């Protein structure tokens, strides 16, 4: 992990984290061979939907079926990024079609893209130059609720308070 990369603790509902069992994390994709083996086991129906992903603090991509909880995919631990990803065939090879940082359990900042790009590179997957769908998360300083900022409107949807321009979702790590 580089000095500039932040890790994200799980900030979602405690009951979801409590349900995570040891060894229940997503499939570890540390190489092109790992990805080829994993994708070969997917059905046509699965490939139509995006997959849940996390990048662990070890920098390795982990994949799980869509609608899986990110905290389960991460085995309950912190991540460098989390979101949803879809794959497509390009010139006979697999590549990333769409990728987001949409994880309401970890609420990663858009700056987490570099960790995602490195993990995708390690798996030899072509990918876009950034998230195809960026989600901006902020915690309201007034009511403490987590928000998704839409259209650069940094106003809390719960209490109408102003939201900060910088990522602050996890109070324990926001100062880093």
For the record, the count of structural domains works out to: 2
As a whole number of angstroms, the C-alpha radius of gyration is 16 Å
Q: What is the arithmetic mean of pLDDT?
A: 94
Query: What helical percentage do the residues reach?
Result: 10-25%
Proportion of residues in β-strands? 15-25%
How many strands?
7
Q: How do the helices and strands follow one another from N- to C-terminus?
A: HEHHEEHEEHEE
Q: Structural class, from secondary structure content?
A: alpha+beta
Unreliable sequence segments = none
Count, helices: 5
As laid out across the biggest beta sheet, the strand order is 1-3-2-4-5
Biggest sheet overview = 5 strands, antiparallel
What does this structure look like?
The structure is a single chain. It contains 5 helices and 7 strands; from the N terminus they run H-E-H-H-E-E-H-E-E-H-E-E. It is α+β, with helices and mostly antiparallel strands. The chain is globular, with a radius of gyration of 16 Å. 33% of the residues are buried. The model has no long low-confidence stretch (mean pLDDT 94).
